[in-house]
Amino acid sequence: xxxxxxxxxxxxxxxxxGCRNEVMNYPIxxxxxxxxxxxxxxxxxxxxxxxxxxxxxxxxxxxxxxxxLKEQIMLEVIEEQLEAL
Length: 85
Hints:
Layout: H1 3-43, H2 48-84
Helix pairs in contact: 1-2
C-alpha cells in the first residue's frame, strides 16, 4: 500500500468513525422530539405557546430524520471506499 493510500485509508477511517457517532446520536433527539410532541398534544393542547412549540419540534424532527439519513448514506459511501482499498 502506498503512502497516499495509507493516508487515504486513515482519513476515511476517521470520517467513518465520525459518521457512526452522528448516526448513533440522532435517535436520542428523534425520540425526544417525538415524546415531547406527544406530551404537548396530550397535556398542553390548549396552550397556544406549547402548540407553537410542538410545531417547531415537528420541524426539528423532520430535519433530524433527514440529516440522519444523509449521515447514513455518507457512512455507506465511506465504508464502500474503505472496502475498495
